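FAQ: What does the model actually see?

It sees only this:
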Amino acid sequence: MALLLLTFVTQRLPSRIPMKLPQRKSPATIPVEVRRVLDLILSSVMAFDRLTCWIDHPAPDIPIAQIKPHCADLKVLNCRSSQFHPVWQTQVQILQPGRQALIELQRAVGARYRVRLSYAEPALDSLVNDRNAAETIRLFMLKHLRVPYMRHAVRFEQATAYFARRASTDGKKTARNLVLYADGTSKLWPLRELKSPCCHIEYRLQGVDTLAEYGLLSLTDCIRFDHQAFWTENLRLFRLPSHVQLGRWINPKTGDVTDTALANRAKRFFARYSHGDAFVLQDCWRETPRIAHVLTPVDNKLFFANVTS
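And it is asked to produce this:
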């Protein structure tokens, strides 16, 4: 009887067992400031916000009607040779592409044409209930985010933060930039229909050499791109010590100082690297690199617990 029951139960099991979702750490082990932000995030989405590529043909046969249903917009600019590289004669710009849009474009190009990727924007949206929550996450990111290879001060244009210059002195676009804002809704393809308020972070990667560093050389690379691995490597978050600890670190030689005095010292330090209500860790680290000795890394995988890509 037991054998018959075991056989019956086995036969009723689904043929595909669902993968167990990644679990966040116990709330007791997550710093309060981090936990408050995590509680605001409904879900996250990772995808390309924009891609640009060139084709070595003046008028390639691109089935726009088949691709457009899978992206926000598609522009094919024929007979437009790339500067200094006349072999590349048609530019293709695709906004918020879904994976199927890239598959259709790759299928159309096939082996008939050569394709060179020239620009990409991998993006991460943290979806929330309202603009206030999105702004809270933006302030958190400014306070905790460090991009190690960008050496210029963060620039602000209205509510948008640029972690590098948008263009060099000769007018060429910067090879890498990180852009952060929270005043719109998510447009990334997998969840764009939700029109959810979000905090939006994107890397802007310009030029073949820069893209090659991230394994982006072709449309196939874009289709197979591991967005979560990219953000795990490039969303580097750090936590500051308490105001009292920071105040003591600023001038450890001071003797008997009250906690209030130490906290006020830390507040003055924060003010030096603040833009409005936002403390900007990137600017602080740039001018005071020894701050790294008192920072604690934040596990960014906590922000990817419910992600769509």
